[in-house]
């Protein structure tokens, strides 16, 4: 996707892509981080208008999931918490329109990049503190978001708790995406023996951000099985066989080989 500041326009764009995916047979459909709004102003994100707009949009997407009989994973949008704070929240909706799982992003993207780009996600969102797994008809899904990909301990924990698939909806920056996106996603797949499902924002957004696009589906052996070639909004597909998870883990059973160790400065 290439989401902007208008929730209604983003909902319309997402709905069209979701209908296209379902029309071609997709049973699980994932959208990127910032699906319903790409906005840099914390005050606007925290406003009642946005709060109600997000709630109405998620309700419409729940109706859509029910209509199309799909598992619909809305990658991430602002989740307004009871104390007036916000979370960067991923929502999985089942084929009956019910919310089956929600995950609040744990790792906040606070970084200063070359060329003057600066991000302070922690100034907008509160960090989550719980790893989330949920059952799909085909296996277990572990839920992560974007910057989480740089913290392999989270992915290992999800895999060791039975994840077969790990979701990584993202709005990866153009700068970091060009050098790290493919490598990180393939590494997490290889380390965990999981399918990695990573939908991305792409292109120049009206807020001035540039995101990398290149949505990927990666096999448990680290092979890219589907990729969006570039940044234009589109749908990518892959047929997934969960038996590939077991095969990869039998070939390389590293999830069972953790050993305790000490860290020493080895001062002379």
Mean pLDDT across residues: 95
Order of strands across the biggest sheet? 7-8-9-10-13-14
- Give me the strand/helix succession: HEHHEEEEEEEHEHEEEEEH
CATH class: Alpha Beta
- Globally, the shape reads globular
Provide the gyration radius in Å: 18 Å
Going by helix content, strand content and strand pairing, the class is alpha+beta
Distance between the amino and carboxyl termini: 54 Å
Count of DSSP helices?
A: 6
How does CATH name the architecture? 4-Layer Sandwich
What's the CATH H-level homologous superfamily?
Carbon-nitrogen hydrolase
**Sequence stretches where pLDDT stays below 50 over 5 or more residues:** none
As for the CATH topology, it is Nitrilase/N-carbamoyl-D-aminoacid amidohydrolase
Number of domains: 1
Biggest sheet layout: 6 strands, mixed
By DSSP, the count of extended strands is: 14
Please bin the fraction of helical residues. Answer: 25-40%
Approximately what portion of the residues adopt beta-strand conformation?
Answer: 15-25%
Plain-language structure description:
The chain is an alpha+beta fold and 268 residues long. The protein has a single domain, classed as Carbon-nitrogen hydrolase (Nitrilase/N-carbamoyl-D-aminoacid amidohydrolase), CATH 3.60.110. Helices cover 29% and strands 24% of the residues. The protein has six helices and 14 strands. It has helices at 7-23, 42-45, 48-68, 152-160, 174-192, 243-251; strands at 28-30, 71-80, 86-93, 99-104, 110-112, 118-120, 132-136, 139-143, 165-167, 195-198, 202-204, 210-212, 216-218, 224-227. It has a six-stranded mixed beta sheet, with helices on one face. A four-stranded mixed beta sheet has the order 1-2-3-4, with helices on one face. It has a two-stranded antiparallel ribbon with strand order 5-6. The chain is globular, with a radius of gyration of 18 Å. The chain starts with 6 loop residues before the first helix and ends in a 17-residue tail after the last helix. The model has no long low-confidence stretch (mean pLDDT 95).
